[in-house]
């Protein structure tokens, strides 16, 4: 993402996990907030940690004082293993958290399939440690069984979706959020990959982090 991006050597249930770390600028270290772990879109459809939405979310966190960890799920890039329909991917995410943010303030974020996996990691983690912020973008609610959020996690959560998302229809996310009375920030005229609207996506995430 930038010249300061660091390669991490992490281990997951299947072996090596390819990951990178972006840190806030040196002048921002006094405002250091913690670590965010960000999950990428579907591994079988070209999703990687280098996805532009994932990178945009990472930039938003970094500019707000967080160090951002992006990683490849099992079977993607140099990460060992094979696709596991979200189950093993949740364990990958939790392994990354334990190795990069074990004793630090923690945030979780994900895009599309990654948001679905993040929901289950959040369900597993909530109550065992504090999670400061959650960002779910383009949540794949029409394709997977997304875990409901704990009521106490609602205030910490930003749920973003494009009005014209033809990969994950907005209605499916509304159907998931409605029983929980969980608000959704809908961006008018935007599709699944936020083409042409990545600066707006970044701005909305930064607004949430500064709230």
Characterization of this structure:
By secondary structure, the protein is α/β, with parallel strands linked by helices. It has a single domain (6-210), classed as Alpha/Beta hydrolase fold, catalytic domain (Rossmann fold). It is 28% helix and 23% strand. An eight-stranded mixed β-sheet has the order 1-2-4-3-5-6-7-8, with helices on both faces. A hairpin with a 2-residue loop joins strand 1 and strand 2 (15-22). The longest helix has 14 residues, at 87-100.
Instruction: Tally the beta strands.
Output: 8
Task: Provide the residue-averaged pLDDT.
Answer: 95
Count of discrete structural domains: 1
CATH class: Alpha Beta
- The rounded Rg comes to 16 Å
Number of helical segments with 4 or more residues: 5
Major beta sheet, strand line-up: 1-2-4-3-5-6-7-8
Could you say which structural class the secondary elements and strand pairing correspond to?
alpha/beta
| End-to-end Cα distance | 25 Å
Low-confidence stretches: none
What is the annotated CATH architecture? Answer: 3-Layer(aba) Sandwich
Which of globular, elongated, flat, extended, rod-shaped describes the shape? globular
List keywords for this structure.
211 residues, alpha/beta, Rossmann fold, 8-stranded mixed β-sheet, 8 strands
């Amino acid at each position: 993402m930038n010249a300061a991006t660091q390669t991490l050597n992490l281990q997951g249930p299947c072996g090596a996990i390819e990951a990178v770390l972006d840190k806030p600028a040196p002048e921002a270290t006094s405002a250091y907030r913690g670590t965010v772990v960000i999950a990428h879109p579907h591994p079988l459809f070209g999703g990687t940690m280098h996805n532009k939405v994932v990178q945009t979310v990472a930039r938003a966190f970094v500019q707000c004082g967080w160090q951002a960890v992006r990683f490849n799920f099992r079977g993607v890039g140099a990460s060992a293993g094979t696709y596991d329909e979200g189950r093993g991917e949740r364990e990958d995410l939790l392994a990354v958290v334990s190795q990069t943010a074990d004793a630090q303030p923690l945030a979780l974020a994900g895009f599309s399939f990654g948001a679905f996996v993040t929901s289950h990691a959040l369900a597993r983690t909530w109550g065992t440690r504090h999670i400061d912020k959650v960002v779910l973008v383009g949540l794949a609610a029409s394709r997977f069984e997304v875990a409901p959020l704990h009521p106490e996690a609602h205030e910490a959560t930003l749920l973003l979706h494009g009005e014209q998302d033809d990969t994950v229809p907005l209605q499916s996310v509304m159907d998931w959020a409605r029983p929980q009375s969980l608000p959704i920030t809908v961006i008018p005229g935007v599709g699944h990959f936020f083409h042409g609207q990545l600066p707006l996506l970044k701005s909305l995430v930064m607004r949430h982090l500064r709230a």
